[in-house]
Amino acid sequence: MLPFPALLVWLLSLGRGGLEMKLQELINKKHWTRETAAKKLGVSLRTLYFWLSSSSKKEPSGQSLKKICRVFKCSLSDLIT
User: Fold this and answer.
1) What kind of fold does domain 4-80 have according to CATH?
2) Which of 6, 26, 53, 55 has the lowest CB atom count within 10 Å?
3) Is 3 exposed, middle or buried (0-12, 13-18, 19+ CB in 10 A)?
4) 2-51 pLDDT tens trace
5) What whole-number distance in Å separates Cα of residue 76 and Cα of residue 9?
């Protein structure tokens, strides 16, 4: 079994392309602006824009993914599939 950080990197590599769409979908379901979502997630608006950009190579860290799941009440598998 892979350690959690390695497993996370592997899962993200499988789900890249869907993560930004899923995150935007979760923001839309809450009827939040990107500014509100960034505040709730405790990140800068710029960081959120990086996460939402399919051309960006910047992905949320393991801690950030946990927080996204907690804030949006979803599982990690929901987020990356």
Assistant:
1) 434 Repressor (Amino-terminal Domain) (1.10.260)
2) 55
3) exposed
4) 455 555 555 555 545 678 889 999 999 999 999 999 999 999 999 999 99
5) 12
